[in-house]
Amino acid sequence: MNEKEAIRSSIELMEIAEAAYLTTIDNINFPQTRSMFNLRNREQFPGLSKLFSSHRDDFLVYFTTNTSSAKMSHIGRNRAVSVYYCKPDEWRGLMLSGTIEIATEPDIKKSVWQEGWEMYYPGGVDDPDYTILYLYPMYAKYYHQLNVFKIDLKP
User: Fold this and answer.
1) What pTM does this model have?
2) Which parts of 2-52 fold into alpha helices (H)?
3) 35 phi and psi angles, rounded to 5 deg
4) Distance between CA 71 and CA 126 in Å, rounded?
């Protein structure tokens, strides 16, 4: 497998992994990992496929979270994160690393919003507790069985 194939397989993994695992550094400098909605999963979020269609080479990741969550406190202190996607039954994994950002543009919040999320954000898309995080990773590491491919994504 060459780098081009590794990138293609990495993007495919992002589109089929059931969850994405976000790791932040807590306020006492320990890593904290949690499962997040994988918004790139085509089956779970078919309406978002178009949003990601122009991001097949930059590995863009979006997450939704509560503004009041502990992870937001971590990110406020240290924006360095890692995101992991996997298919354990195939021994496939993708780790992305970089600096996460908070999206403030109302258009992004609206384009990511999904019907039914009122259960998490009762005020809807304008709920002050609804936050969008995004990551343009700087590094990617794709694992397939015993092969590791390191991909430098820095601009």
Assistant:
1) 0.94
2) 3-16, 49-52
3) -80, 140
4) 20
